[in-house]
Write a structure and sequence with these properties.
Helices cover about 55% and strands about 5% of the residues. The protein has about 350 residues and is of the alpha/beta class. It has 2 domains: about 170 residues, P-loop containing nucleotide triphosphate hydrolases (Rossmann fold, 3-Layer(aba) Sandwich), CATH 3.40.50.300; about 160 residues, no CATH class. The structure holds zinc ion.
Length: about 350
């Protein structure tokens, strides 16, 4: 299980809100944990349960993970911790006949009407979107009138499959990795190029042209780099096929072409996305927001420098230009034309030289 700290590093905003809620005794009685990552959906309910039951929380409100209650949760010995997950062949959660019908909603709900051993009862519904409509409607009543001190945690990767009435009765907890790991050739050069272009006290046509050249160099190297990667991956098999002089050669060459194509499209999409992200985050910095809340703080320059050189209004106009560039590059206007137009537009937003 990942630690509270590691979730805090990945998702500072919702995690801080959670520990504050514990500290202020304002925790919700039901959370809807939405994440595309199945590990988070499996793991996180335990941490959330620790947060609920911890009797000796840290000063910030986060669970200590050391007290008797935290230990019981972690060791699977907490008596009032009940999990419902899709079990039938159809991978569906159904209402069920009665409270003795295991892995059904009736069974699950019955656990919360038994006399409790602990102060808090914890109920986890894994993959809550697999509840059929009648099960969801039945559970709605429990959500509306929770039986005593309960914490319900519903997890899902597809929140849209849940009834709006169920969703609205849970506090949303989105653990979504929106961070993009940029890893195309020379991606690390781009932030410096954009900084050189946009964070300047005054205009310079020559500088704008330099930036155009550098960006163009990177975008035009993406295809050959993708071809090289695909060729290298298949080299041993291609060699072997050539030795046998069989029809496999053609097939492998086709595979190389196909892989190079998809690698190229991925790289190009990342190239476009990085430029856009940089300007979108520039707006946030100019607005005075903290780097720590941004999905890709690592690509940004010093916030102080941004605030000194870019007004909020100008940052917004720069982002508009980046959005036009995005549109142009995706519709395959000539790259050189699109990049030059963009760099000139950004340059034009800077002060005239005196
Ligand atoms: Zn504790």
């Amino acid at each position: 299980m990942e630690s509270w700290q590691s979730y805090l590093e990945k998702f500072p905003i919702p995690m801080t809100a959670l520990s504050r809620a514990k500290k202020g005794d304002r925790m919700a009685h039901a959370y809807l944990l939405v994440s595309s990552n199945p590990d988070y959906r499996l793991d996180f309910p335990m941490l959330l349960a620790c947060l609920r039951v911890c009797v000796n929380p840290n000063p910030d409100g986060s669970p200590c993970m050391e007290c008797k209650e935290c230990k019981k949760i972690q060791n699977g010995l907490y008596p009032d911790f009940h999990v419902l997950s899709p079990a039938s062949k159809a991978r569906e959660i159904v209402i069920g006949k009665d409270s003795d019908d295991p892995d059904t909603l009736r069974w699950f709900e019955a656990q919360f009407h038994l006399s409790s051993i602990s102060e808090w009862k914890i109920g986890v519904i894994q993959e809550a979107d697999t509840m059929n409509e009648s099960a969801q409607n039945a559970f709605l009543k429990t959500l509306e009138e929770p039986p005593g001190k309960c914490l319900f945690i519903l997890t899902t990767g597809r929140a849209s499959n849940l009834l709006p009435t169920v969703r609205s009765r849970c506090q949303l907890l989105a653990l979504t990795d929106n961070r993009c790991e940029y890893r195309f050739p020379r991606c690390s050069d781009i932030p410096a190029i954009l900084e050189n272009l946009a964070l300047q006290p005054q205009r310079s046509l020559m500088r704008a042209e330099d930036c155009t050249r550098s960006l163009l160099e990177i975008s035009s190297s993406l295809l050959s780099a993708a071809q090289a990667v695909a060729a290298e991956r298949w080299a041993p098999r291609l060699e072997a096929a050539k030795e046998l002089e069989n029809a496999g050669v053609k097939l492998i060459e086709k595979r190389i072409d196909g892989e190079a194509g998809s690698e190229y499209r991925r790289n190009r999409e990342q190239f476009i996305s990085l430029i856009h992200t940089w300007f979108a985050q520039l707006v946030l910095l100019a607005e005075g927001m903290d780097l720590s809340i941004m999905p890709n703080p690592e690509v940004m320059p010093d916030p102080e420098k941004v605030r000194k050189l870019v007004t909020v209004d100008r940052a917004h106009r720069m982002l508009e230009s980046a959005e036009s560039l995005l549109g142009a590059l995706r519709t395959n206007v000539n790259d050189e034309l699109a990049l030059r137009t963009f760099c000139l537009a950004i340059n034009q937003m800077l002060k005239k030289p005196v």
